[in-house]
Design brief:
Helices cover 57% and strands 0% of the residues. By secondary structure, it is mainly α.
Length: 217
């Protein structure tokens, strides 16, 4: 006899439905990110690029499909809290004052407040909360260090920093990818997790980090 059983067919249909729902959810998140990033012409597509870099790092670290999906969602939503930051602060071309710095540094916590009611996002919220923590404990909002910081958040830190460095900003021109990688390597062990930086560099050498679409990269 040939052909699959009705049970197998139902399982395949269910898997396809789940896959379609995941794709629709990711598309919705990307649309939300475009709305947020569009508030500032310098950060347009920022979250999508961070997502690409983070996924390349995650793949290099042998993340499972489930962990890559969680990382993708966290990367797309990592800056959602900036919707509560005044636009003039985001676009400011000179040094921020103390109050403006406080407003910027509040955005991870605001993201947590915004996302907590969505139970399906519970697993990724810590990654978003801690994506500005530093490996040596000098980051924010909680000043945690090393392995206290979720690995996914450490990945977002590297991906986010590289994207910012290789993009034009109101206060400076974009760095070349090579210069930005030098910055990552120099600060490995202080701002960045050395293992994540190494994974990023390997992914870059393999051509898995697309950097030619923005800034001067």
């Amino acid at each position: 006899m040939s052909g699959s059983s009705p049970v197998v067919d139902e399982k395949l249909k269910l898997r396809q439905k789940v896959k379609n729902l995941e794709m629709q959810f990711i598309s919705l998140l990307k649309s939300l990110c475009q709305i947020i990033d569009a508030r500032d012409s310098y950060t347009r597509s920022h979250s999508v690029h961070v997502c690409q870099y983070a996924l390349a790092i995650g793949a290099e670290l042998s993340f499972s499909h489930k962990k890559l999906k969680q990382l993708e969602i966290a990367a797309l939503l990592h800056d959602v809290g900036k919707i509560g930051v005044e636009t003039f602060i985001l676009r400011k071309s000179v040094a921020l004052d103390d109050l403006e710095i406080m407003a910027i540094r509040y955005h991870p916590l605001l993201a947590v407040r915004m996302l907590e009611p969505v139970k399906q996002l519970a697993d990724v919220i810590p990654f978003i909360r801690h994506h500005h923590e530093h490996y040596d404990g000098s980051g924010y909002p909680d000043g945690i260090r090393g392995d206290q910081i979720p690995l996914e958040a450490r990945i977002l830190t590297v991906a986010d920093s590289f994207e910012v460095m290789t993009s034009n900003r109101p206060y400076r021109k974009a760095m070349t990818p090579q210069t930005a990688i030098g910055e990552l390597q120099e600060k490995a062990g202080t701002q960045f997790d050395p293992r994540v930086v190494q994974a990023f560099c390997i992914a870059f050498e393999k051509g898995e980090i697309p950097v030619s679409s923005h800034g001067e990269a």
